[in-house]
Inverse folding.
């Protein structure tokens, strides 16, 4: 089958490679994408197409894999052409937003699958899970069975795959943002060293792990900001407070400037960025 | 010396016992306190006094150890009498609130010490730390040197002990509240089992630890709600978002009804309580 990816970043490329390993051809659309993405696609032999019109003609299944804020736009763009296959949105968006894209697709008789990815890019086994929900979920899962991506079927109900993705990321990313805020506050109040000493009592490596989390998240913070808004909306719809993740979004916004940085910033650089922002 | 405790709960009693072990006499004021507290004070041989007037006359040092929302009230009540010793506020309150109590005390020529306690009641060594700041911090620390309570001096600046207490609790209690919200949302969305399965991958005991945290926090949630407001104010003053801990306060408010429960509630009971509240 012909599987199209809109628009593969580090994660999307690894999905495309899993589809190739299963015996499918993986397509992408280079127009408007970065040099880094082009190089990645070339390295992994993704097939280029020149226009979204061609893409919609060629592909049997389209996988939307992009930053959360772009998910609805990508869906609308696809609807402008006569796509007749399965459209799978595997982005980090709320179940409600997923359902709205489902409705869009259904209005044009396009089969829709809800997806959510947990883990980093799928370059090793048992490390990355694609959760899938919807009537055609098994068909999308079958695209990847020969690769390193793990798949999990969540039944026919659209929203379930997004729900588990949001729930899982709510803690991993929410707690990282919380630590960022606490470290910056402790530093501002002049008690960071004392806090780190307390965290290190009884031989704990909590301080080192926290430093590592602050430093490593900087490369991805630019897109986590939008994801936190999706998680906030998800918790609100489920009757829980949205404040944790609105605050987390603000934190990731403050450190979004590290996108594409040449090297991993120091803890001090991260704290400096966390302390300077116009909004609170 | 005569050390007075206003108003010892589980933590305060353990402080009083550390003071006794150091050779001091520990006083308390039974008026208006619960049967449980009276039984605890009797077990540990605290000395009763009949009135706050007597208390202020008798004690060389007063330790205010009470729920956060009561800290200012206890300070004002003490000022109505002619106390002439050292007043140490060791409560979980923001540095700003601590400074306001400091000003109250200074206006009556009472020496003030800022304190913050990290850890549970001090019934074993290396488990509970009393951080102290202010000109007389060392004198308050000396009250406990013969007991199981560890003390740490933070220098003369009022607010530093509260700052580290707030920073430390911001993560331990904030992340517990975050997990409560996520578990309740996942349950509401019908993906809790899937989330717990994902958390348990690769042999992790994260699900068991999370269940344990949800269940154990219920007994203390009634006073954590106010502490979260103090932490939110602390982060805001330090230039960070307050949303994490306002949300955490809401979460603890929802499960505050478990105060004094005869047994530890089931995970299902905790989730049920988390789902029902008038405010969001």
């Amino acid at each position: 089958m012909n599987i199209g990816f809109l628009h593969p970043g580090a994660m999307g490329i690894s999905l495309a490679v899993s589809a190739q390993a299963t015996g499918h051809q993986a397509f992408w659309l280079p127009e408007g994408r970065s040099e880094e993405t082009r190089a990645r696609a070339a390295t992994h032999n993704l097939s280029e197409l020149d226009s979204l019109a061609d893409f919609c003609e060629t592909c049997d299944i389209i996988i939307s894999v992009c930053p959360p804020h772009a998910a609805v736009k990508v869906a609308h763009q696809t609807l402008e052409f006569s796509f007749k296959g399965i459209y799978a949105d595997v982005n980090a968006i709320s179940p409600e937003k997923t359902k709205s894209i489902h409705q869009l697709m259904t209005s044009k008789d396009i089969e829709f699958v809800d997806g959510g990815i947990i883990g980093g890019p799928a370059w090793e086994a048992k490390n990355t899970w694609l959760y899938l929900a919807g009537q055609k979920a098994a068909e999308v899962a079958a695209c990847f069975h020969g690769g390193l991506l793990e798949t999990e079927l969540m039944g026919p109900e659209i929203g379930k795959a997004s729900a588990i993705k949001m729930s899982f990321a709510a803690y991993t990313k929410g707690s990282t943002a919380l630590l960022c805020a606490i470290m910056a506050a402790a530093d501002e109040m002049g008690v960071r060293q004392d806090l780190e000493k307390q965290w290190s009592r009884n031989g704990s490596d909590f301080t080192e792990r926290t430093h590592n989390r602050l430093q490593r998240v900087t490369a991805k913070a630019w897109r986590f900001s939008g994801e936190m808004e999706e998680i906030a909306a998800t918790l609100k719809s489920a009757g829980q407070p949205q404040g944790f993740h609105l605050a987390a979004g603000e934190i990731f916004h403050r450190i979004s400037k590290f996108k594409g940085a040449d090297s991993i910033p120091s803890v001090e650089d991260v704290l400096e960025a966390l302390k300077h922002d116009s909004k609170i």
